[in-house]
Amino acid sequence: MGLLVDGVWHDVWYDTDKSGGKFERQASQFRNFVTADGAPGPTGTGGFAAEAGRYHLYVSLACPWAHRTLIFRTLKGLEDLIGVTVVDPKMGAEGWVFGDADRSGDPNADLTRLYEVYVRANPDVSSRVTVPVLWDKQTKTIVSNESSEIIRMFDTAFAGLTGRAPEFYPEPLRAEIDAVNARVYDTVNNGVYKAGFATKQAAYEEAVTALFESLDWLEERLSRRRWLVGDQPTEADWRLFTTLVRFDPVYVGHFKCNLRRIADYPALSGYLRELYQTPGVAGTVDLGHIKTHYYWSHTTINPTRIIPKGPLLDLDAPHGREHLGA
Ligand SMILES: N[C@@H](CCC(=O)N[C@@H](CS)C(=O)NCC(=O)O)C(=O)O
């Protein structure tokens, strides 16, 4: 775990002293957009047109933010258009490294650490070195390292190549999706990290309280409706899914998010199984990488690096959500 300062790697853990024991996530640095014709997106510069084989994605199978992008790559039929490299689940003193990953198609296959990819994009960069990273082979730089924006590019920019129209952020539902995303991001996706990385009792309790208030709210909402917004899955569902699938295996124990398990919530656990059983999605879920990453990498939380064997899960069990309609 560490970060880059002026292009030089420093091995340091998160500094929570200046924030009263609270974990504060930094904003992503690379914020350009791939668009159909290379026009600029909402932030950053243009010049990144959607083309087959031009972009390469770096992910960790452990990371919930990277997992979103992998799911969208699969759901949008982009596997043959956008290559992928999976980093080693063990994140140590050098941050994310490639280990014995399959590097076929990787334009930076000469590099052994992810921070070197950031430095190649910008030799003076000061940044945390996070996954996901979307790399442009043509201009040899990072297009984006912000998952919420990469999933929107994958949903929209490649329609001319895949024949798949945008579907996960429909115009009429945007305000409601944004509102759900805002609460889920702050209290659930990031909430588990705020609980797990807190270094003061009060900071931990504040995060866990807000997290379970939101899970109770989601349980109530999903007991009446099949999807969070509208009548088919949207990005709001996929953004929640990647936290839910890690919850019982990792966040309950490692991050002490243990008032209840997802298994104790009937609607949330059926909903989790239905999303998991969506064609293509199970292949993006690797519980070995997930458990290994968290329990091995965060030695301030788990100094022995022992990885638990459980819990026993059956994500293939019937989800029982058909009665809620389309
Ligand atoms: N805002 C980013 C967050 C990505 C992120 O924090 N990824 C974690 C892995 S789950 C990471 O790479 N952390 C390394 C670090 O913080 O040094 C996104 O959503 O893309």
TrEMBL record:
Gene3D superfamilies: 1.20.1050.10, Glutaredoxin. It comes from the Bacteria. Glutathione binds at residues 96, 128-131, 146-147. The record marks 251, 294 as: Lowers pKa of active site Cys. This is Glutathione S-transferase family protein. The active site is at residues 63, 193. Pfam families: GST_C_2 (PF13410), GST_N_2 (PF13409). Residues 170-294 form the GST C-terminal domain.
